[in-house]
User: Which sequence fits this backbone?
């Protein structure tokens, strides 16, 4: 490429970035967009935001990554049901059932709860949203049932069962309200 072509591309890229920047509401959003766009244009891996954040601010890569996550968000990112489902995933992961079959089933169920919740948030059709939210609620109930059965088998503690039941109830209730 000759210098003229490079200059034209730089000018067009600048115009494009300015146009996108104007569409963003606040100054912090425009700043995050500019940093993210710069990270995309710099040499290096682009498959995820972590390496982009590391190129922009190597000393504070983790913090920069979090700001990028807020900028490049998905429909489910701020959905309370999704956040609760992720809490349930972490709770089940941090409090494993002693019985391996039930433990795997509980882990699979909470994983499905979170994934179905994210899928529902991304869909436009009310009927489709309702279908996946019903599935998410059912998977949540399965995870809680795994802990109840494990408790009967003395494969988990009463505290583990109580914690999973309490959070599971919140997750189930919020999914019930999402079904139209």
Assistant:
């Amino acid at each position: 490429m000759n210098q003229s072509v490079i200059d034209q591309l730089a000018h067009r890229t600048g115009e494009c970035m300015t146009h996108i920047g104007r569409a963003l509401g606040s100054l912090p959003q425009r700043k995050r967009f500019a940093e993210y766009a710069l990270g995309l244009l710099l040499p290096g891996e682009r498959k995820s935001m972590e390496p982009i954040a590391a190129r922009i601010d190597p000393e504070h890569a983790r913090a920069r990554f979090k700001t990028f996550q807020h900028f490049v968000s998905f429909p489910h990112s701020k959905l309370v049901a999704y956040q609760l489902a992720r809490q349930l995933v972490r709770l089940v992961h941090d409090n494993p059932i002693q019985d391996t079959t039930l433990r795997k089933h509980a882990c699979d169920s909470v994983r499905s709860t979170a994934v179905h919740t994210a899928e529902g948030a991304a869909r436009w059709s009310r009927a489709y949203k309702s279908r996946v939210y019903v599935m998410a609620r059912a998977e949540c109930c399965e995870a809680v049932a795994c802990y109840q059965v494990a408790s009967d088998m003395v494969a988990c503690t009463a505290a583990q069962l109580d914690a999973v039941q309490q959070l599971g109830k919140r997750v189930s209730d919020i999914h019930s309200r999402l079904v139209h």
In short: The helical segments are 3-23, 27-41, 49-56, 61-71, 80-94, 100-122, 126-152, 158-178. Residues 48 and 65 are 10 Å apart (CA to CA).
